[in-house]
């Protein structure tokens, strides 16, 4: 059972109290109860199907309620879904209260904004172009309230620092809310048209299709993640001294990519590249990977085959994209002294130059069987010293700026205590 901190209980109780205050004007409001009952039942049905089949939330019916009902009545629409949907985690009561109060406040705020801007008259008259203005304002208020509440619960329940608790929430909420808001507005306009509520339900059909496609994409993405996890776990089992190294190289690669202004899709590819850069070690004898003493020239040549082994292993995984090239070339050096092909300068793919810096940085800041970890400052100094010969100065500069902004927390990854004699770090990491 996952415990909920006392401060989170207090936060949920405060949100629930605010939601109850929104319902106080209900007795004096002219509420179309049949419409409220129908929207509540539809909301519960949609929420049940979406959570069970796809995961996530489904807002068109909630926003249609904000466009059709007075604010206190609109706040009641999500109540049935919260009461009837199952709660997998315990304790169930605060989670169920949160599921009811959170959307109730958001829908109430959306309805208040919509009605204040005359949106009800636009919906009743099916004045669709004009109806977009109050509807857009309602969706914005809806997303702002959800963002405020979700950031708050992250801060109090999960201990996320306040400056990070709300990061990225509004953009994601607006992306989903704008699509669902348009569908909710179409439902409301058709509901008030001569065709009635039955026609409004037809709006949900294309939404269900798009949701199914979205769910398929996420299932495929989950399968990709599972494939990557399996490969990384296999490497970690084989080379226990560098356990966790792959994930940290992925993290450092993301920091560099974001600092360089790469788009989100490419950042994700660089994360894959960092995580899988050493997958070719599965083809290297375990005794060489775990050898404590110096490697002979022949043994080093064998280990230096791991980029080619890795490239062969992932060649058929299409979703990795240019990450496959990074796996092959992450040990190349700008001066041509790297391997496997001795590429020079910009002939080394950009993604490989990113991973090379991330790999060397984590190798220096992690304790291995043959040396102790260096401080981050010493690792940065070494990277800057080798910039222009071994590493791309742009990538080194990007990592230095990212570290200054976000910091770094190196971990001990060795299974055994290190020896006192260090190995030069600028050599190829094993």
General description of the model:
By secondary structure, the protein is mainly α. The protein has two domains: 6-202, no CATH class; 221-406, Hypothetical protein af1432. The chain is built from 21 helices and no strands. It has helices at 6-22, 33-54, 60-68, 71-74, 79-84, 92-116, 119-124, 128-157, 162-165, 169-192, 196-201, 204-238, 245-259, 264-276, 286-289, 297-303, 306-314, 323-329, 350-365, 376-386, 393-406. The protein starts with 5 loop residues before the first helix and ends in a 24-residue tail after the last helix. Residues 411-430 have low confidence and may be disordered.
Strand-residue proportion: under 5%
- Percent helix, as a range, is 55-70%
Task: Tell me the series of helices and strands, N- to C-terminal.
Answer: HHHHHHHHHHHHHHHHHHHHH
Radius of gyration: 28 Å
* Quaternary structure classification: single chain
Global morphology: elongated
End-to-end distance = 42 Å
Overall SS class: mainly alpha
Largest sheet properties: none
Rounded mean pLDDT score: 83
- Unreliable spans: 411-430
- Strand segment tally: 0
Domain unit count: 2
The number of helices is 21
Transmembrane segments: 9-26, 32-50, 62-84, 128-149, 169-191, 197-215
Domain HD: 242-364
Protein name: Metal-dependent phosphohydrolase
Domain HD-GYP: 220-415
Describe the structure using short key phrases:
430 residues, mainly alpha, Hypothetical protein af1432, 2 domains, 66% helix
Helices and strands in order, then pairings?
Elements: H1 6-22, H2 33-54, H3 60-68, H4 71-74, H5 79-84, H6 92-116, H7 119-124, H8 128-157, H9 162-165, H10 169-192, H11 196-201, H12 204-238, H13 245-259, H14 264-276, H15 286-289, H16 297-303, H17 306-314, H18 323-329, H19 350-365, H20 376-386, H21 393-406
Helix pairs in contact: 1-6, 1-8, 2-3, 3-6, 3-10, 6-8, 8-10, 13-14, 13-19, 13-21, 14-18, 17-18, 18-19, 19-20
Pfam families: HD_5
Keywords: Membrane, Transmembrane, Transmembrane helix
Transmembrane segments: 9-26, 32-50, 62-84, 128-149, 169-191, 197-215
């Amino acid at each position: 059972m996952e415990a909920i901190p006392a401060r989170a209980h207090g936060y949920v109780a405060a949100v629930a109290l605010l939601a109850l205050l929104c319902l106080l004007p209900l007795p004096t409001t002219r509420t179309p109860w049949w419409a409220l009952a129908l929207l509540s039942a539809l909301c519960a049905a949609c929420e049940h199907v979406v959570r069970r089949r796809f995961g996530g939330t489904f807002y068109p019916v909630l926003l249609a309620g904000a466009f059709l009902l007075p604010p206190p009545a609109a706040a009641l629409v999500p109540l049935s879904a919260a009461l009837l949907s199952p709660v997998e985690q315990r304790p169930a009561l605060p989670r169920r209260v949160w599921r009811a109060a959170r959307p109730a406040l958001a829908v109430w705020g959306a309805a208040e904004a919509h009605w204040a801007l005359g949106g009800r008259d636009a919906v009743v008259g099916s004045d669709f172009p004009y109806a977009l203005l109050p509807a857009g304002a309602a969706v914005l208020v809806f997303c702002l309230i959800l963002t405020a509440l979700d950031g708050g619960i992250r801060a109090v329940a999960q201990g996320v620092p306040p400056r990070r608790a709300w990061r990225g929430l509004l953009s994601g909420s607006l992306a989903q809310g704008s699509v669902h808001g348009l569908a909710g507005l179409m439902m409301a306009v058709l509901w008030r048209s001569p065709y009635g509520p039955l026609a409004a339900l037809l709006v949900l059909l294309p939404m269900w299709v798009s949701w199914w496609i979205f769910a398929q994409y996420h299932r495929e993405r989950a399968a990709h993640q599972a494939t990557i996890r399996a490969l990384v776990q296999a490497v970690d089992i084989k080379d226990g001294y560098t356990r966790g190294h792959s994930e940290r190289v992925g993290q450092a690669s993301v920091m560099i990519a974001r600092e360089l202004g790469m788009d989100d899709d490419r950042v994700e590819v660089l994360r894959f590249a960092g995580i899988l850069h050493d997958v070719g070690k599965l083809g290297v004898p375990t005794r060489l990977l775990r050898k404590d003493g110096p490697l002979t020239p022949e043994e080093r040549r064998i280990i230096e085959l791991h980029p080619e082994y890795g490239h062969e292993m992932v060649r058929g995984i299409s979703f990795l994209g240019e990450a496959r090239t990074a796996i092959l070339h992450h040990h190349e050096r700008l001066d041509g002294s790297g391997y496997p092909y001795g590429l020079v300068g910009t002939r080394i793919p950009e993604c490989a130059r990113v991973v090379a810096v991330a790999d060397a940085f984590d190798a220096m800041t992690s304790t291995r069987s043959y040396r102790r970890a260096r401080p981050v400052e010493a690792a940065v100094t070494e990277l800057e010293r080798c910039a222009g010969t071994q590493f791309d100065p742009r990538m080194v500069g990007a990592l230095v700026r990212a570290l200054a902004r976000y910091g770094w927390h190196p971990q001990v990854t060795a299974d055994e205590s290190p020896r006192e004699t260090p190995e030069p770090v600028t050599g190829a990491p094993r």
